[in-house]
Predict the 3D structure of the following.
Amino acid sequence: MFGKSSRQDWIFFLVFSAFVLTMPVTLAPLGAGYPDLLQKFAIYGLFAIGFNILFGLTGYLSFGHAAFLGVGSYAAVWMFKLLSMNVLPAVVVAVVVAGIFAAAIGYVSLRRSGIYFSILTLAFAQMSYNLAYSVLTPITNGETGLQVRQLATGPVKNLLDQDIRVLDQAFGVVEHGVPTTSLFGIEMSGWPGFYFCAAMLIAGFFIAMRISRSNFGMMLRAIKSNQNRLKYTGVNTRPYLLSAFIISGMYAGLAGALLAVTDPLAGAERMQWTASGEVVLMTILGGAGTLLGPVLGAGVIKYFENIFSAINENVLHQLFAFLPDPVENAVVAVAGMFVGEGWHLTLGLLFMLIVIFLPGGLMEGFNRILGLFRRGRSEEDGAASGADKEA
Amino acid sequence: MAAILEIHDVNKSFGGLRALWEVNLTVEEGAVHAIIGPNGAGKSTLLNCLVGRLKPDTGTVLFAGQPVLGREPYEINQMGIARVFQTPEIFEDLTLLDNVVIPAMAKHDGAFRFSPWQRVSARKELIEEAEHILEDVGLIEQRNVVCSSLSRGDKRRLELAMCLIQHPKLLLLDEPTAGMSRADTNNTIELLKKIGERGITKVIIEHDMHVVFSLAHRISVLARGTFIAEGTPEEIKGDPKVQEAYLGGAHA
């Protein structure tokens, strides 16, 4: 931990920021250079970074983080309906509300550790999902989902169908039709939307980096390594765990708010356990406990979801057109199982391969490759100096 | 000298098994006090009661005049009691330096301090102190090594360093040389003698008579859950009750 000086951190951070901001260009050759997908990269990257602060640093595996994502989305949409279509109040309130929600769930769930903790978080998330789906319909609009509507013209009877936006009204913003989210007049869809999410991702990454290098981060690592020893070392581990839980819940709330910023509606399915499982996959795929890994994992999974699922038989036929017809048909039949609807199969295989051969995720793979290069170079140096001696 | 640890009438049963029975013990400040006894005598049970892992059925334990029982392990540590475990408990996947900086931080910052913005590398005074301690126990060369690769003897040294950096008033050692080679045992004795010069009160639970007689100022003998004798090493060696219960005449 001491190996990384603050200067190295700054370089790392600047390279990361530069890459995120140039993704529209650098990822274009992969077919990912369009705003909808890049927004998802940034949003789920944030979600995974936050999740990693809990899982990667303390080792506590939460299976209910989608609840905070959903809460963030609902809170953001409500702010759009009540206050303003400006995204700032929505983002701030969503983060705060998700933090409060995480404090309550974390306080109870952290009474247990290991599998019991995971089950408790899963139970809370499923409860939240079911509440949002049915019981809390007056707040969540149930199955239909919560949406931004036109301004109320007469007296307000039902806030679900009529919006008030008191701040926008006070500032005299004129609306035509169903309004869109904005940041002081810049519409938050398409590329501006992506750059807003990217800015949030960069800020979130910076905070996670500072946490990881801090006293607080060191204690979280110690909890993962040997919580028993830490208790006998005079540390009350519970508040450390709860703080980490709340911080990661706030990241999830921010991600949820950004989902609402780029597309202002919120549905209960965002809280379902499959969404909680997805962020676990992202973090492990990229490398739990590393800074870059979760972002990378999120990118890979969203890429597969959007690109592989869009490939159909026609595309495959074009791709393998150079083969003789019977071979082409056979190849397309086999490859067809792994694309389109079958992209989950590809993802599953990739996940298995990584967990078996690279338990540290994609980051471990990169580090191994880097290590090979370094060793290769030092061997060359050694050979060269040996030759010098002979000469 | 004043008593730093007073144990009064402690009883502890597990189901029908009476593990501790009317246990009384006073440890003087600055002393090295050994607790010996055959297997199953209740030594580890007593130690676990002192650090808050077990709660005795009845009795009181006072540390520097303050009651200890019923407190959480971290609170007992913050009072100034550090513990070395039978199998070294360290942070296996962190570096040696991290392992020693963490207890220093716990001592300095208390049981909880939320400081997500302060870099560990900015806390020069803690790192310097940690490096001093690692030097004292002879592990400074390996300060950036991850601990899981250390030998058993080195892990024990590290665990001692982790306790020493907290400047505890009382150090509890649970069989500090269990499972060690003769050479490692002798190294550990030397190390314990060296840190003895710091005047930390120590309570040692030990099987190895060689270790006990090289270190202890006073010895208490525990058998079947109660103390049957207490005295200087010389007195204990000559006590026929002790020989019968424990030494079996072999050391007479």
In short: Chain B has two domains: 1-80+168-252, 92-162. The longest strand of chain B covers residues 3-14. The interface with chain A takes residues 51, 72-74, 77-78, 82-83, 89-95, 97-98, 101-103, 105-107, 109-121, 123, 127, 144, 162, 166 of chain B (CB under 8 Å).
